[in-house]
Amino acid sequence: MSMQYRTPARLGRPLSAIGQGCWQIGADWGEVTDDSAHAVLDAALAAGVTFFDTADGYGDGRSEQLLGAMRSRLDSDAAGGEATPSLPFIATKVSRRADPFAPESFTEENLRGWVERSRRNLAMGTLDLVQLHCPPPAIYRDDRVFDVLDALAAERKIAAWGVSVETCEEALISLEREHLASIQIILNPFRLKPLEQVIPLAREKGVAIIARVPLASGLLTGKFSPQTTFAANDHRSFNRHGEAFDQGETFSGVDYDTGLTAVARLEQALDGAMPLPEASLRWILAQDGVTSTIPGASSGQQARANAAAGSEPTAEQAEIISRFDVAVREIYEELLREAIHPHW
User: According to a count of CB atoms within 10 Å of the terminal CB, is the N or C end of the chain lower?
Assistant: First the structure.
């Protein structure tokens, strides 16, 4: 079965329903070798993934550079007459290399410098999409920042710009901007609040919704237990309580033990009809207005399994996801809403 592709109006280019999140091949997920990173990217491409999401801060540019090498190789193959599909759509994010909590970091000089560095890392004259990387809340109301992004688009240094947000409030503020092309927001069976206002309004305006942290930092793979340990350089060790960045980026902000209880309930609801990670990804893609979701992977096998969830669902799969949706909402109300809904 083949990958679905979706084209939001403001972006104007099709994105694969399953994208490849590239934080994992950059940093903060334990050690991922260059060989493993290339295996992930190659497997994703072979499985029909055309959308790759990265950031200038993932490994201080390592993730961008790996994608740049991939894109240059594909470009070279095409120039040499080899049968090569269209170049993939690469989205990056900027601003986390500066003090992410300091609005004064968002000067025109810094914004332009961040974009130039990403252009070099990715070996691209015009970046497909540049997203502000979870900036301080004050930035969402700062017209000067968005004027710079508009200028960079007019200069063809970027083709479009968007935002990656922590909260639904930040997403709704961003949706007031005429040239906003995309919103990247955490959405998964542990994070339902975006379904209330953000996604319907984005759909109405033709703004892409990129669902990130779709498997809740791996919790929704069903592979973790109370005894699971993570490497010291893995954010699932060092950021469980928001020590390094927003707590919501790690396990979607869900308490680990509570998350394990929720996972057990979700697996019970599926009763073996579909693996939990596939059900979680397919559930996200079934939400009207979602353009793409971007699970990470540390191996080619993981990338292929993720990509398989991007196919058009069969009638049987759609029925499974419909039943799964009932369980997702019940479990969220019983176990998660009180801790999650007010914060993000």
Answer: N
